[in-house]
Amino acid sequence: NENEGIKWLQFEIFAPFPELIHGVFLRSGGVSKPPYASLNLTEDFGDHPNDVKENLERIKSILGLEHTFHLQQIHGNDVVVYHEKDKHSRPKADASLTNHTKIGLMIQHADCQAAIFYDPVNKVIANAHAGWKGSAKNIFASTLSEMRKNYGTLPKDVRVAISPSLGPNHAEFINYEKELPEEFWKFQTKDKLFDFWRISEWQLTHAGVNENHIQISKICTYANSGECFSYRREKLTGRHGTVVALKQ
Questions:
Q1: pTM of the model
Q2: Strands 124-130 and 95-98
Q3: How far apart are CA 82 and CA 61, in angstroms?
Q4: Cα→Cα distances 99→93, 102, 125, Å
C-alpha cells in the first residue's frame, strides 16, 4: 500500500478478518533526516523527537488510530497484557497483547522480526519482537502461552504474520555455537549463515500453530536498502513500525 509517499505492507492471511487493522511500515514517506531517513518510528537511537512524533502521527492517521502502545524492547521473552491504565506507559518487554479496540500494538525493528498474532475466536491480538536473542528464548511460545492464560486462546486458532527481517543470506553468526541453541544449528544454510524464517516457522508449529496459519514476508531487510532499515548494514539507522489493532 502507498499513501503520500508512505509505504506499508499488509498480509493476505489477515484478509478474511475485517475487524483487524495492521501494517508493516517501510522506510519512506517520513520526515526524519539521515541516518534515520525517513519514516523512523523510534527516538531511542538519537533521532529528533519531533521528527519521530510527526512520523508516528502519519501512520496513526493512515490506520485510523488514536494511540499506539510501545515497549522498551530488551531482546528477551517477557510479555505484557495491555489495559487502559497502561496507555501512557512503556514497559520493558518484547511482546504485548490485548483484546481492547482502537489501540495499536507497535513493534519497532530493523533486521529483527515483528510477528503479529491474531486469535479470531476470542478477538485477541498480540505483537512480538524477535531478534536472535528473543528467538533463542522462544518469545513466540511465550506470547502464545500468555494469550492462552489471559484470554483462553488456542494456538490452533491463531494466525501469525512476520515482517521483513534479516534473511538467510545475511544472518551470519560467527560464534553460533556459543550464541544459538543447538536445536537451531540444523537451520544453518551455509557456513555460519542461518535461516531464521524457518526457525520461526518451526517454533510456531511446535507450539501448536497450524502451518497454514503462518505467513512470513521473506523480504530481507539487509538486501533491500531502498525499502528497509537494517542495523547490520548501516549500524546507526532508523526502525520500522509494525502495528496491529482491533477496530471499534
A1: 0.96
A2: antiparallel
A3: 21
A4: 18, 10, 6
